[in-house]
Amino acid sequence: MKPAGRIGILRMFNVILWALTLFVVVWISKELGFLRHGSLSATETGSKASDTKMPTKTAERVEDLDIREEVLRKKERELGDREILLKEQVRRYEKLIAGLQSRVSDLEKNQSERMEQFMSIFEKMDPKKAARIFDEMNILLSSHILSSMKQDRAAEILSRMSSDRARLVAERFLGKNNKTPKRSLTEE
User: Fold this and answer.
1) At what angle do helices 151-160 and 139-148 cross, to 10 degrees?
2) Number of H-type helices and E-type strands within the chain
3) How confident is the model at residue 84 (pLDDT cuts 50, 70, 90)?
4) What is the domain partition of the chain in residue ranges?
5) Is the dihedral of CA 132, 133, 139, 141 positive or negative?
6) What are the percentages of helix, strand and coil residues in the chain, rounded to 5?
7) How far apart are CA 84 and CA 7, in angstroms?
């Protein structure tokens, strides 16, 4: 579950707790006689709450509700503190993710630049020597470099490679061997 979802759940829990508290207060008010259907409450008739005698059972319920209300307030404060902590963690993780994304972007740019340098070097090399190097090179890397080169130059090098390696490179180049998951260019 995402942190933003947890915050929403905490808020929903808070609303439910307040609604429950309101329900209990209304219920107790009815039990104490402050709210009666079709009649005036003690405060509306001018009598004081101290004039009415509360049964001990009701007084115990009021005391129990006060305790529960205090517990709810404490939990509400704890939830608020946790919400603040979660927000701080989210900000910290978002900053970390942004830094990592920037780093990945820089690394990809650097790798692309290096690939262009190698491609340029191989284009200038003698096709026979380049073919020997490509025969020993990683299939993914060699197919990537050859696909970036000019077609006539890549064809010369490919024609001088061993037939097995040339077939593998061509399959990679044409995408016929895409059943395997993508891997980094430095694997194999």
Assistant:
1) 140
2) 6, 0
3) very high
4) 3-37+50-108, 125-174
5) negative
6) 75, 0, 20
7) 10
